[in-house]
Amino acid sequence: MTAQIIDGNQLSQQLRADVAKRAAALTAKGKQPGLAVILVGEDPASQVYVRNKVKACEDNGLYSLLEKYDAELSEADLLTRIADLNNDSKIHGILVQMPLPKHIDPTKVIEAISPRKDVDGYSVLSAGELLTGLGGFRPCTPYGCMKLIESTGVSLKGKHAVVIGRSNTVGKPMALLLLQANATVTICHSGTPDLGYHTRQADVVVAATGRRNTLTADMVKPGAVVIDVGINRDDNGKLCGDVDFHAIKEVAGHITPVPGGVGPMTITMLLVNTIEAAEREL
Ligand code: NDP
């Protein structure tokens, strides 16, 4: 059996078409959705990420504001700028690109963003709302993974889902979203002995470790849905994920490629959250 490849680019395009429609409807009502993206410092990967986010806004009818500051920006000045954006009626979502320079406390910065504009869903309040089922913004990457799983037509109800990784931005919210969808959820991490024991029982595996070959074919139940969040480089410098894609696609039922799986969905869900923020305000 060869797995069906879950095409993140295609799903992303479909969702972005809906985003563009909703953005146009909001704009017609005088409320063009707006995203502010703040970059502090010159990290080359971050420069690419923020450029892609701004371009995605422009392509889909959202207003975007890109603010770049040099690495010496003080924490106090950044917090003041965020306070201004919290009160700016043109801005519905605020995103501060991580990582920040060492002298700036990322927690302080995230907590300074108004919960109404926390489209990354990283604040303690958003995390608490997700935990308690009160709504709030879902972190973009796990939210995108849920859409990818949904697109397979495989129902999560009563299924066993294993999440590998427990970061606050990917693993933990991923597990909560799967739980909300009525899956039985196991969370594994670097201290989990015999990872394969857990993954072999899983109908759905989400790998988010940042380690190549965390999941190999012998660790996958035939027919399982495999979602690969990881972004790594192989020995030839080629982009690859956390799972052994070529071998696992002969065992799994559905699998995301890297690139072209989870990656494009993350920015798409950022647009969706920004639209939602603007709609909530209306
Ligand atoms: P973190 O480094 O914050 O977390 C990695 C997690 O994986 C930790 O919980 C760690 O366990 C666990 N882990 C590491 N090695 C193993 C192992 N061998 N077995 C089991 N668990 C392990 O990373 P992130 O969550 O931020 O990101 C994970 C990956 O996803 C990265 O490659 C990142 O680049 C990628 N990513 C991709 C995005 C996209 O848009 N496609 C967006 C965000 C992230 P422990 O807690 O015990 O240390």
Automatic annotation (TrEMBL):
It catalyses: (6R)-5,10-methylene-5,6,7,8-tetrahydrofolate + NADP(+) = (6R)-5,10-methenyltetrahydrofolate + NADPH; (6R)-5,10-methenyltetrahydrofolate + H2O = (6R)-10-formyltetrahydrofolate + H(+). Pfam families: THF_DHG_CYH, THF_DHG_CYH_C. Signal peptide: none annotated. It comes from the Bacteria. Its EC number is 1.5.1.5, 3.5.4.9. GO terms for cellular component: cytosol. GO terms for biological process: L-histidine biosynthetic process; methionine biosynthetic process; purine nucleotide biosynthetic process; tetrahydrofolate interconversion. NADP(+) binds at residues 165-167, 231. The keyword Flavoprotein does not apply. Residues 139-281 form the Tetrahydrofolate dehydrogenase/cyclohydrolase NAD(P)-binding domain. Belongs to the tetrahydrofolate dehydrogenase/cyclohydrolase family. This is Bifunctional protein FolD. It comes from Oxalicibacterium flavum. The lineage of its organism: Bacteria, Pseudomonadati, Pseudomonadota, Betaproteobacteria, Burkholderiales.
